[in-house]
Each structure stands twice: as structure tokens, then as C-alpha cells.
Specification:
heterodimer, A: alpha/beta, Substrate Binding Domain Of Dnak, Chain:A, Domain 2, Rossmann fold, 6-stranded parallel β-sheet, 26 helices, 48% helix, B: alpha+beta, Alpha-Beta Plaits, two-stranded antiparallel sheet, two-stranded antiparallel ribbon, 8 strands
């Protein structure tokens, strides 16, 4: 296509994608970066307060306090706590629904795909009696009862899920969380107008929210999904826009609540459903992965080979995926479903169905997931999507050969007339985009199995210096910080070149995999030592753990390694980077990383720099509190140097 | 020569121009994220005033054709460049008499808050390439640069 819509799209680390988007005849978020490039400088520093009708108040030399008297420290930390509480709430919503789905599945004796994962949870929770379904119900109930506790009652699973030295530290600091939902409530109350004004008190609440978010929203959501959806298995899979097969009815899924798709996935491959697709002129149905729910299906893809065609891209690739014209429907159930997809769906007649009202899109049909009605809902969804396909790309392909002779000519004429006036939506595919052999299915379990059932081989490589350390490059993708995935990809390249093994989870991994860093050939981009390790094992220097929820898996890996070494987490040569963090959820993740005592790099500051107290606590004092620290740097090379230095300091402290 | 033009009807009073001016003239280098918004050393050369009726009055230096500030400056600290039209200020020549402050018809010029020994004066960001930071940072395009006849 030559009719460039804007010609001012932002950069992407993924050059073919950048070109594709620049040539689209429609607007995407990549086109809007330029027109939003003037940022509010007070907002960037977090010193714009809109909590009451006296505001917005902003801090300047002439006005160092808001009308109420709040100074920059109070304004910044109030805003920050608000964001962390909201982010935590999002993750807790996901784990709540996941636990409810597990409980309901157990009650109807539905399919439990991950029996070993269930046993693992039972052993952590101390559940010993009951059959498979009773155990699953007890596990779900244990999670739910903790989530629903009041804020003044501590959650019971925290101790069982956490590493002892960490738990003791949290207890000592007084940051053990009460009921996770109530913690969100308390956080929101605390930062309302003219309540708390103590910046340190509010930052400590952020840590408490970080713990409940991390252990429940991250770690447990993964483990519960393992029970319902099956455990990840190592395999290679195609990624990028190439996974879209125009011969099929393609359904793009966006969000984070994988367990809502269990029934639909099964239905889509049953003969009667496939027959409906065939009647409309397609070969069947395919799910196209997008955002984290796509990452998770990719992770567990060995269980869904027939229906899942691969992961196409992250949140800021979703508009491009739709713009190919070959997606017939979008099923959304949680965040990272950009409002920007709405006009594209409208233009290309793509059916939007929303399965959870928290993520209701303006022009989507709402069909709130109801476990009791899941089969009926799956059928309805299939019919609606087939209808969309016929409108978009279908020819009438029904066999009328047995029709009444008298009616046959009329039927033929009508079908012929329809087919002659029907105009297919234009396809603008990109079959070469991405690659076909990205390593996926990496989890704390599958990786350990790959290493022979123990972490020792990895630890030996670290001790020997063949792997200098581990960096988790996690979290979102955004369009700032250099452009789409630019900082995440550049930082990852810098880190592996320094012989630092990179583990990823979240939308960052969607960008990094489309740029080819998770194929075994990427070993040549690694430093000589890491390259040799990768080539010997046939693995890439970047291991993809899947969705952002799987940040919890990375932290299990870290904990198990620390346990094997007999050290606490902050002592490990391990760093985290949420280089292109985007949302409030990422801030809640980050708070978990800090509670675990890990160094956390961010490419852009989380709107806190207007407060000297917040900056000092997060970047310096935290080292004494939990061992963690925030590092802010938008430059890939400088950031990699800083992270390498931290890894080297931790190595020498461990005498390795 | 160039001049900053203002459409006060478009101004939302966001003060982004103010923060941008502070950032452009700070002593220590850094990004907008670490600009100390509470430090009086980081003074803005422009001001946004309320008109008392829900609107705003962005006050920017006009770099006047016949600058009252220059004409009233006895020490020669203020001068108008005949080529660029920019009215510039030399702190080393300033006698701190503040005649310029009294004579500016727009009320733009002011003594610095901390020491009251120098004048806070728009320099059209000449050191930053002559594209004023305030203009670059106005989200409403209420201020812009225009070529005017001398």
C-alpha cells in the first residue's frame, strides 16, 4: 500500500513491523506518539495533584505546597500508592477469577490438565486428603479465603509460599499483608484527600501491596493455571505476524485470564464447530496469540497444538495484527486491550466480544464469562464469529444439492448474486514476519527438568563465570523509551553480550521474541562464554517464561537457586529490569521485586522524581530495608553497565 | 527577526512553558525528571497569570522593537541585537538598579528571587539553538514563533 496515513510513526525495535505500520492505511498507537509528544512536566515528576477540587495543584518555586499544604513528597507518594494499589487490584482480580474457575471446575469434576501441578500446590499448602477434585477445591478455597480476609488479618499462605529469610525480613519490617483485596482497599483509602501525608508510611504500604500482588497475583495465578490449562513444556514455536493463517477463521485473544478460554479452546476443534467454519468457507478455527494471554497459550502450546497457531505479538503489536485483515474476531477479557483497536475493528468489520466487564471495549459485545453457562457461551461465540467471518471474508459455501428441484434455480441465483456482490475485506498479511522457531514453554519446572532435575548445572555455570549472572527483563512494552520495544531489545542485547543470561516475561518478551533473540541462532549475539553455553545446550541466550504473570515464575527460579545456595535473594547475582514498564500493574510487580530485595531497573521513572524522599527511599534506603533498589536509566548501554556492575558486586560478595 | 506570539484564548494555564523554561535555564545539567521544581534557583522567565475570569494571561518577553528595558538600562547590560532582534541581558554589566523592571510595559522582567541582584530575562533560548523551549512544550500551541518586520 502506498497511501501512507501519517508517515510519522514511532520507531520499533522490530524494523519489518515498523515499516508495516508506517504503511498502514489506518491510524494506530504508533501514529499517535508524535501528537502526544508534549508531556506535562508536572505530571512526569508526579507533582500534579488532582485529588480535590482545590486542584490541580502543582509544585513550583513560588508554590512549594498545594492549597491543602501537601508538599511534593506527599503529593508524589499519594499518587504512587494510588497507582500501586490499582495495579495490585488488577492482578488480584485475575487470581480471584482463576481460583474461582478452578473451584468451579473441581465442583463439576471437569478436566484437570495439570495433576502434578495440583500435587505441588497441595504440598505447599499442606493439603493431604481428598481425591483430585476435592484437593483442587481445597486449593482454590485456600486462595480465595486468603484474598477475602480483612486487612487486619494476615494471609495464611504467605509464609507457605515465601522463602524463609524473606518471610522473616517482611515480618521484621511489619509488611506482611492482610487480605489482598482489603490491602488494595486500604491503599486507596490511605491516599485519598487529606488522609495520609507521610511519604515513608505510604511507600511501606507499597511494599505490602507488592508482596500480596507477587505471591497471589503472580505466583499463584501461574500455579492455578498450570492445574487448569496444563504445565508448560519446552518446544519451539512460530512467532510474529506469520502465525496468522488466512485459510482459517482467526480469533485474536487479548488479556490475562487464560482460564476463561478453557471451554472455548476445546469447542473450537470439535467436528460440529469445524463444520460451521467449513460451511462459511474456512478450514476451521485458529486462536492467534496477542498480549499476555497469547504468551501464556504459547507457553502451554504443547497442549493446544491444533487450535493455537502461535503468538503474533505484544500489546503494541495488536493493532498491526488486526490491520492484516485476517483476524475475524477479538475476544478480550483483561488489560492490554488497547482502545485503539476499536476503530480498526469497526473499519475491518472485526467482531469484538468482551468476556469480562472490567475490560469492556466501547464497541464490543459483552458476554461476561459465566462458568455455569460456559458451553452455551462457547457455542454462541462460535456462531457470532462465523457470522463475522461470512460478512468479512465468506462466500456462501453450503451444499444445496439436495434442495427441492423447484427452489434450486432460485437458491442458485441468490447464492450467485450474494457471492458476486460480496466483497472480501482486503488482506495485508506479513507472512515473513517473526520467526518459526522461538524457544518457548520455559517455566521453573520445565527449565529445571531440562537441567536434569536440579539447579546445580546452572549454578555451576554461574560459579564458573560462564554465565556472569541472570537478568530478568520483564514487564510491558511501551512506545516511549526509544520507541516500541527499543529499550527492552537493546538492553537485552547488551546484557547477553556481557555473558548475562536473560530471562523474560510479559509483553517485553513478545517484542524480544519477534526480534529473534529467542531462537538458538541468537547465541551468536551473546558474549563468548554465554555463547558457548548456549551452543552446547542448543538454547537461546534469552529464555521466555511467557506472560507478565510469569514474573512470578522467574522469582520462583530465583528463590530455588537461593535456597540451594543457602543465601538470601538479595545476595544472588540477579537483577530485574522492567525497562519499558507501562502500567500501574507493572508498578505493583516492581514493588514485589523490591520486597524480594532485588535491584530493579526502569527505563522511565514512575512519576516519582518530584519527591526527594521517594527518590531517596526507592533508590537508596531500600537497600538497607529489603535489599532492593530502583535504578532509573533510559540508555541501554549505560543501564547494562550499571546492572553488570551490581552483578559483579554480588559475585564478589559471594566469593565467586 | 523572530518573536514569540501568544493567543491567550488557547492557554489552559498548564504551566508547561514555565517548567520548560526552568529546565532550559537550570544550572546543573539533567532531564526534566530531575529538575528541582521547588528550588528558587530554577526560576522561570515566563509567567502565567489568571485573568480572574477563568482565563489565563501568558506573559512572555516581547523582545520589543523599541525596548523600554534597553532604553532605561544605564549600565548597558541590556541590548537589542540589530540582526536577530533578540533583547539580551549581560549579568556582568548589570548594576541591579531594576529600572528595566519598572519600565517593562508587560511586567515580564523581575529581579531574581534568591539574591535580588540580577534580572530574570528571556534569552529566546539562543544557547539552545534559538528555538524557545516554552514554545516547544506548549501542548495547546497557544504560543508560537513568528518572523516579524523589524
Amino acid at each position: 500500500m502506498n497511501n501512507c496515513f501519517g508517515c510519522n510513526t514511532c520507531k520499533s525495535a522490530d524494523k519489518p513491523l515498523e515499516e508495516f505500520i508506517a504503511n498502514l492505511p489506518m491510524e494506530t498507537s504508533h501514529h499517535r506518539v508524535e501528537s502526544q509528544s508534549t508531556k506535562c512536566n508536572f505530571g512526569l515528576q508526579g507533582v500534579c495533584c488532582r485529588l480535590c477540587s482545590n486542584g490541580p495543584c502543582r509544585i513550583t518555586p513560588d508554590a512549594p505546597r498545594g492549597i491543602c499544604g501537601a508538599n511534593a513528597d506527599t503529593i508524589v507518594t499519594r499518587n504512587f500508592l494510588r497507582a500501586v494499589a490499582a495495579g495490585s487490584g488488577c492482578y488480584i482480580h485475575v487470581v480471584e477469577n482463576t481460583a474461582l474457575n478452578l473451584k468451579n471446575t473441581a465442583l463439576v469434576k471437569g478436566k484437570i490438565k495439570g495433576e502434578r501441578a495440583l500435587e505441588r500446590l497441595c504440598s505447599i499448602f499442606g493439603i493431604t486428603s481428598g481425591d483430585l477434585y476435592e484437593k483442587a477445591e481445597k486449593v482454590a478455597d485456600a486462595v480465595l479465603s486468603d484474598l477475602y480476609k480483612p486487612e487486619y488479618v494476615k494471609m495464611e499462605l504467605v509464609e507457605k509460599l515465601s522463602y524463609k529469610p524473606r518471610f522473616d525480613k517482611w515480618k521484621e519490617l511489619g509488611i506482611l499483608p492482610g487480605g489482598a483485596k482489603s490491602e488494595v482497599f486500604k491503599g486507596v483509602v490511605k491516599c485519598s484527600t487529606n488522609l495520609n501525608s507521610d511519604p515513608v508510611d505510604m511507600l511501606i504500604d507499597c511494599l505490602r501491596l507488592g508482596i500480596s500482588t507477587g505471591l497471589y497475583g503472580l505466583v499463584l495465578t501461574n500455579l492455578l493455571n498450570d492445574v487448569l490449562l496444563g504445565e508448560p513444556e519446552l518446544r519451539t514455536a512460530p512467532v510474529g505476524l506469520r502465525v496468522i493463517d488466512p485459510d482459517y477463521i482467526n480469533i485474536m485473544i487479548t488479556g490475562h485470564q487464560h482460564s476463561m478460554f478453557v471451554d472455548l479452546q476445546e469447542r473450537l476443534i470439535q467436528p460440529d464447530a469445524v463444520a460451521k467454519a467449513k460451511a462459511a468457507g474456512a478450514k476451521g478455527f485458529k486462536l492467534v496469540g496477542c498480549t499476555c494471554v497469547g504468551q501464556d497459550l504459547q507457553l502451554r502450546g504443547s497442549h493446544y497444538k491444533e487450535v493455537f497457531n502461535g503468538h503474533a505479538g505484544n500489546n503494541y503489536t495488536s493493532e498491526a495484527i488486526l490491520a492484516t485483515g485476517a483476524i475475524d474476531a477479538v475476544l478480550s477479557e483483561f488489560n492490554c486491550t488497547l482502545p485503539g483497536i476499536e476503530p480498526i475493528c469497526e473499519e475491518l468489520k472485526i467482531k469484538q466480544i468482551c468476556l469480562d466487564s472490567v475490560a469492556k471495549k466501547a464497541n464490543a459485545e459483552i458476554m461476561e464469562f459465566d462458568f455455569a453457562k460456559r458451553e452455551q457461551q462457547s457455542n454462541e461465540i462460535i456462531d457470532k464469529i462465523v457470522g463475522a467471518y461470512i460478512l468479512r471474508r465468506g462466500k456462501i459455501n453450503v451444499d444445496f444439492s439436495n434442495a427441492d428441484k423447484e427452489w434450486k434455480p432460485l437458491i442458485d441465483m441468490l447464492v450467485g448474486a450474494y457471492n458476486s456482490i460480496h466483497q472480501d475485506v482486503n488482506l495485508n498479511l506479513m507472512p515473513e514476519h517473526g520467526n518459526d522457531h522461538t524457544l518457548t514453554g520455559v517455566s521453573e519446572v520445565s527449565l529445571k527438568e531440562f537441567l536434569g532435575g536440579k539447579w546445580k548445572p546452572l549454578i555451576d555455570l554461574i560459579v564458573a563465570g560462564d554465565i556472569k549472572g541472570i537478568a530478568g527483563v520483564v514487564g510491558c512494552s511501551n512506545l516511549t523509551a526509544g520507541g516500541h520495544d527499543v529499550l527492552s531489545v537493546e538492553l537485552t542485547k547488551e546484557l547477553i553480550a556481557k555473558d548475562i543470561l536473560v530471562l523474560t516475561a510479559g509483553c517485553s518478551s513478545g517484542g524480544i521474541e519477534n526480534c529473534g533473540l529467542m531462537t538458538p541462532e541468537a547465541a551468536k549475539l551473546a558474549g563468548p562464554k554465554l555463547r558457548a553455553v548456549c551452543e552446547k545446550l542448543g538454547i537461546p541466550p534469552v529464555l521466555n517464561f511467557g506472560p507478565c504473570l510469569a514474573i512470578g515464575r522467574l522469582e520462583i527460579v530465583a528463590t530455588e537457586i537461593a535456597e540451594e545456595l543457602g543465601v538470601d535473594l538479595p545476595q544472588l547475582p540477579l537483577v530485574l529490569s522492567a525497562a519499558q514498564w507501562l502500567e500501574e500493574q507493572a508498578l505493583a510487580d516492581g514493588a514485589y521485586g523490591l520486597a524480594l530485595g532485588l535491584p530493579l531497573h526502569l527505563g522511565l521513572p514512575p512519576f516519582i522524581t518530584g519527591s526527594k524522599v521517594a527518590v531517596k527511599v526507592l533508590t537508596e534506603d531500600m537497600k538497607q530495608l529489603t535489599g532492593g533498589q530502583v535504578i532509573i536509566n533510559p540508555d541501554a548501554k549505560e543501564s547494562a553497565d550499571i546492572l553488570e556492575k551490581i552483578i559483579m558486586e554480588k559475585r564478589s560478595a559471594l566469593n565467586i | 527577526m523572530k518573536r514569540i506570539m501568544i493567543d491567550y484564548m488557547k492557554c489552559d494555564g498548564c504551566k508547561n512553558c514555565t517548567a520548560a523554561c526552568m529546565q532550559a535555564h537550570r544550572e546543573e545539567q539533567g532531564t526534566i525528571y530531575d529538575l528541582d521544581l521547588t528550588d528558587p534557583k530554577n526560576e522561570s522567565r515566563n509567567h502565567i497569570l489568571s485573568d480572574g475570569r477563568g482565563g489565563y494571561r501568558p506573559i512572555f518577553c516581547r523582545h520589543c522593537d523599541l525596548p523600554e528595558c534597553v532604553m532605561s538600562c544605564m549600565s548597558g547590560a541590556l541590548s537589542k541585537d540589530s540582526v536577530t532582534g533578540v533583547v539580551s541581558y549581560d549579568v556582568n554589566k548589570c548594576g541591579s538598579c531594576f529600572m528595566c523592571v519598572m519600565n517593562c510595559p508587560y511586567g515580564v522582567l523581575k529581579p531574581d528571587t534568591l539574591t535580588r541582584t540580577k534580572v530574570i530575562k528571556c534569552d529566546f533560548c539562543m544557547e539552545k539553538g534559538g528555538e524557545p523551549s516554552c514554545v516547544k512544550n506548549c501542548p495547546k500551541k497557544a504560543i508560537w514563533v513568528e518572523e516579524v518586520q523589524a
